[in-house]
Amino acid sequence: MLSSVTSAAACRHLIMAPFKFCPNLNFMFLESPSILERYSLAKKAGFQAVEVGFPYVHSIEELVKAKEDNGLKQVLINVYVGDVTKGELGFAAIPGQEDAFQASVLKAVNYAKALDCKLIHVMSGLVKNPTPANQETYEKNIRWATKVFEKEKIVGLIEPINQRSVPDYFMSSYITAVDLVKKVNSPNLKIMLDVFHLQQLHGNLVSNIEGLASQGLIGHVQIAQVPLRGEPNTPGEINYAYLFSILEKIKYDGWVGLEYKPSNGTVNGLTWIEAMGFKL
């Protein structure tokens, strides 16, 4: 088993690429209850860009102002997922919710265009006992969304999420995700490579990442340690010093989303970046 406590120095000679990191403001800078203020905290910490999974608690105007006041790039948002208190986490795989799905995508597109954001994560929804109807609905909805993204020059992302973290989440297989993206066959539909989920769903990180890259399927990368979802240098299953060398090997040049839960304050936890030979 790999461990994050492996010396970063031992692998640093393999790491050359100037990776671009962006914090997910639904996971980091929770020292402030306000997403709007987290934009400012991210800028003060040295970040040049952010991602926000669930921006819809604020108006488009409020978010644009927070982004522009701090001179930040908006890398990614999720679609509107509905009311999480009612068990909603997206509509893509839910038969009978096609209208809600289309409305959620169009709402996300409006936010993304205003924020000059080029990536939208399409969430599948929760399904306790999946049937073929769920997969058929999911494929139909993803095809519809992809046509919208093509028109708007936005890349849609589907992300396999492990069901230990999110019980009953429908899209929980990279095999299924790869098959669908290849069937749709559009440059505007890619896979969100969240290493935290990939490790728990399938393992074999190196071969799986290289395989996804060789097929041109990676649209965005997110990272967190397994199993506690802390910083990359906290104890766990993934040797991130080595994993970054693999991202360099495949010539990944997109943003790396930091979707982890800081162990002891967001800013205190950022020391891993310099320790691994990077800078913001």
Short description:
The protein has helices at residues 8-12, 35-45, 60-69, 98-115, 132-152, 174-184, 195-201, 205-214, 240-249, 271-275, and strands at residues 20-23, 49-52, 73-78, 119-121, 155-158, 189-194, 218-223, 255-258.
Molecular structure report:
This protein has one domain: Divalent-metal-dependent TIM barrel enzymes (TIM Barrel). The chain is globular, with a radius of gyration of 18 Å. Strand 5, helix 6 and strand 6 form a beta-alpha-beta unit. It is 39% helix and 13% strand. The chain has an eight-stranded parallel beta sheet with strand order 1-8-7-6-5-4-3-2. With 280 residues, the protein is of the alpha/beta class.
N-to-C series of helices and strands: HEHEHEHEHEHEHHEHEH
CATH architecture heading:
Alpha-Beta Barrel
Number of E-type strands: 8
Number of domains: 1
- Show unreliable segments: 1-16
**Rg over CA atoms:** 18 Å
Using the coordinates above, name the CATH class.
Alpha Beta
What fraction strand?
5-15%
Averaged pLDDT, please? Answer: 94
Strand order of the largest sheet: 1-8-7-6-5-4-3-2
What would the CATH topology be?
Answer: TIM Barrel
Structural class: alpha/beta
